[in-house]
Every structure is written in C-alpha cells, then in structure tokens.
UniProtKB/TrEMBL annotation:
PANTHER family: PROTEIN SERAC1 (PTHR48182:SF2)
UniProt entry tagged with the keyword Membrane: yes
Classification via InterPro entries: SERAC1
Subcellular location, record wording: Endoplasmic reticulum; Membrane; Mitochondrion
GO cellular component: endoplasmic reticulum; membrane; mitochondrion
Alphabetically ordered keywords of this record: Endoplasmic reticulum, Membrane, Mitochondrion
Entry protein name: Uncharacterized protein
Length: 99
C-alpha cells in the first residue's frame, strides 16, 4: 500500500521549461502534453516525443529550429492507466494545467 507522500508524488503535475529562446521577446508559448502511459514507462513524458532509434526529441531537437521565438514547456503528469495510477481525473489534470 502506498503512503500519502508517494500518492502525492505520483499525482504531481509539473510544467517544465524545455526550451527558452535566445531572442529578447518571446512571441509564442507552446505546451506539449503527452498521452496515456499504458506501459508504466517512467520516462513517458520524454519518450512520447523521442524517436526510439535516433533518440531525437521532436520537441527539443526540431521545434526550436522552426519556431526560434517560442518558449516550449512540457506538462508532466501521472498518465499511468494500469500501474500506480493517478487518483486525479482528466478534468483535474486539465484544471491543473490551466491554473
């Protein structure tokens, strides 16, 4: 059985800065939201955007080249649907992202 601290950690949502432009003015914010984690992969939030062979991450390796004035953030949340699942609903995750 999980402790309350472990459950809180699993339900924690993080907005992580993945790229900050060198230009003096940020004109666009992009928030990358990964999908469901059906394989209990602890790196799911990164692996969603990463090619398994080349290890190139679409969000950090390519998107800044096309949108150099954009700040890119990743919304990390417990997306496990089988193992160590979050007690938060989709609505709660959405509310956390917006707040």
């Amino acid at each position: 059985m999980e402790t309350q601290a472990e459950e809180n950690q699993q339900n924690r949502n993080l907005l992580v800065e993945l790229f900050f432009p060198e230009t003096p003015e940020v004109t666009l914010d992009i928030i990358a939201v990964h999908g469901m984690n059906i394989w209990d992969n602890p790196n799911h939030h990164d692996d969603t955007w990463t090619h398994p062979d080349s290890k190139k991450n679409w969000i950090t390796d390519f998107l800044p080249q096309d949108l150099p004035e954009a700040r890119i953030l990743g919304f990390q949340y417990n997306a496990n649907v089988v193992f160590s699942t979050s007690s938060a609903s989709i609505e709660e995750h959405a509310s956390n992202l917006l707040n």
